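Thread amino acids onto this structure.
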């Protein structure tokens, strides 16, 4: 089974994120990500794993021992005009928490890690990707008229599971 681990965006920021993806789909005819995946920040990219109960236990124990921290979503960024995302600004406490979590997760055998994951984590919340190439400049101009600014609590670590072509929440674990 294929899984990934994420922080799920909630509240007004979630509504904004989904609305923005739906709006970009309607206006620019790009892939509507909101139909395939909930708004999130990826902590561990997709991986195949048969013993998800081992990962669940690690996350459950980690979340029981750790407290919520702060994170901010503000403005937009992109990766080489191929991916557009909401900028993410984690607090120092959030960065330390994520680093500690990933270190513990790496202790589980048979979870694959890419070189990019090991070297650096660039937290972001994707709103457009895939077929945006020639439309990028128009989409970017459209987004320049928007000023998202959300203060959030980093309050969950969740496992998502791929079912068909869609990612669904498998389990959500809340930080104290």
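Threaded sequence (176 positions):
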């Amino acid at each position: 089974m294929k899984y990934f681990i994420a922080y799920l965006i909630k509240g007004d920021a979630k509504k904004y994120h989904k609305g923005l993806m739906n709006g970009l789909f309607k206006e620019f005819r790009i892939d509507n990500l909101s139909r395939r995946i909930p708004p999130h920040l990826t902590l561990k990219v997709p991986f195949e794993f048969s013993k998800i109960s081992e990962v669940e236990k690690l996350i459950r124990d980690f979340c029981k021992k750790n407290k919520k921290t702060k994170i901010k979503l503000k403005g937009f960024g992109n990766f080489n005009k191929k991916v557009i995302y909401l900028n993410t600004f984690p607090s120092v406490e959030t960065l330390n928490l994520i680093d500690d979590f990933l270190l513990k997760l790496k202790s589980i055998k048979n979870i694959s890690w890419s070189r990019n994951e090991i070297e650096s984590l660039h937290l972001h919340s994707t709103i457009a990707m895939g077929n945006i190439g020639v439309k990028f400049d128009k989409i970017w101009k459209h987004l320049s008229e928007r000023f998202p600014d959300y203060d959030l609590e980093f309050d969950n670590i969740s496992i998502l599971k791929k079912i068909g072509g869609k990612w669904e929440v498998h389990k959500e674990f809340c930080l104290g």
